[in-house]
Amino acid sequence: MVKNSKTSYGWMAIVLHWLMAIGIFFLFGLGLYMVELTYYDEWYRGSLELHKSLGLVLLLVWIGRVVWRWSNTNPAMVGTPVEKKAAHVVHLFLYFLMFALMVTGYLISTADGRGIVVFELFEIPAMSISFENQEDIAGDIHWAIAWSLMLMVALHSLAAIKHQLINKDGTLMKMIRPKASQ
Amino acid sequence: MKKLLLTAVTTSALTLASLFSVSAQAADYKIDTEGAHAFVQFKIQHLGYSWLLGRFNTFDGGFSYDDAAPEKSAIEIVIETASLDSNHAERDKHLKGADFLNVKKFPKAAFKSTGFEVKDDNNAVVTGTFMLHGVKKTISFPVSKIGEGKDPWGGYRAGFEGKTTLKLADYGITYNLGPASANVEIHLYVEGIRK
Q1: Both ends of chain A: CA-CA distance in Å?
Q2: Which terminus in chain B has less CB density within 10 A, N or C?
Q3: Burial B130-151 (b: 16+ CB within 10 A, else e)
């Protein structure tokens, strides 16, 4: 029940999936909100600290999730061959964009050699190399990726809902709770 | 006859003097950005409690300076606004963004002098056009000569410094940094190598 089966995801995959979904939605909203805060807003600094800390925690979750996914069986996809292919491509994009999003965020804040302190617990150091105007370039890419990821999330969610409600093939339910193993 | 001679002597002396001053002076200098002996720094109050300093790392320019006729001096400097460096990437990103310098839209700031009012041997007030954030304004500020002379490597150098205070709102930068931070000081330190 913790591990995946041929017919559904296990608890580990389900929890990781929804943790990241909630985290990424929250960070997207927070990101759009915090850049509008002004210098004298009480949360001007705190919002960014939270965004950076949570982003790096999600990077760790992402790594764990990828390791879990590729060291585990995955439930079979349902749908037409085209749908399966499309779902697979969107999944790959989702993983890639999430990773690139976190990496570009890291590159913004570490462009001057400062590390990122995660929830005042530990520090992720900066890399010893940087490129010119790194904070600006990484910032532009971070913004573009955030919106691209939201687009992919929309496709991914619509497809899951379509399969659940129209095809009634239980696609969404696979990610809600594990089926009793057979 | 005596009067004529006097005139001739005076004329030759004047000619000689002017020749001398032309040959020895009226030099054009290139600002030594290559060797980084020039700095464009800014300084702004932080919350009214302390100072924040930063600089522009990339700029170019030159000046002409004549010891005998300093009122004919001129300076021109062009600053790449994206080279702003306050030793903090997140702050730099913000300062280069749309809230402040908007460097994508306004990649250059520039100063070009239009006149020099000499105060004494080493001090003058320069007037010129300053462009920042796409806004051009005529400003005047004091400059002083630090020194000039031969360098140890076969060249000839002269150095100046100047300081001015700008009101950010005058240049269309209106982000609220607090009442103590409405103005920014610009400090210019230039060393030129004679061409």
Answers
A1: 11
A2: N
A3: bbbbeeeeebebebebeebeee
| Token representation of residue B25 | 């002076």
Written out in words, the top-level CATH class of the domain with range B25-194 is mainly beta
3-state secondary structure of B175: coil
What residues does A122 pair with on adjacent strands? A118
Q: Which of A1-15, A38-52, B96-110, B167-181 has the lowest mean pLDDT?
A: A1-15
Closest Cα to residue B194, out of B143, B142, B153?
B153
Residue B62: pLDDT above 60? Answer: yes
Q: Point out the residue among A38, A39, A136 whose CB comes nearest to the CB of B93.
A: A136
Q: Which of A38, A39, A111 sits opposite B89 (nearest CB)?
A: A111
Contacts of A107 (CB under 8 A, 6+ apart): A134, A135, A138
Cβ–Cβ below 8 Å for A136 and B82: yes
* Token code pair at residue B2: 């005596």
In DSSP terms, which residues pair with B141 in a beta bridge? B126
Contacts 24+ apart (CB under 8 A), B13-22: B21/B66, B21/B68, B21/B69
CB-CB under 8 Å, B96 with A111: no
Residues A138/A107, Cβ–Cβ less than 8 Å: yes
Classify A127 as helix, strand or coil.
coil
Distance CA A103, CA A26 (A): 18
Confidence of residue A1 (pLDDT cuts 50, 70, 90): confident
- pLDDT classification of A131: cutoffs 50, 70, 90: very high
- Which among B190, B137, B181, B182 is positioned nearest to B163, based on CA atoms? B190
Collect all residues of chain B within an 8 Å Cβ-Cβ radius of residue A112.
87-89, 92
Q: Structural domain boundaries of chain B?
A: 25-194
Among all chains, which residue has been given the structure tokens 């292919």? A85
Q: What is the pTM of this model?
A: 0.85
Do the chains contact at B93 and A39, CB–CB below 8 Å? no
Q: Residue B18: what pLDDT?
A: 47
Q: Does B147 touch chain A (CB under 8 A)?
A: no
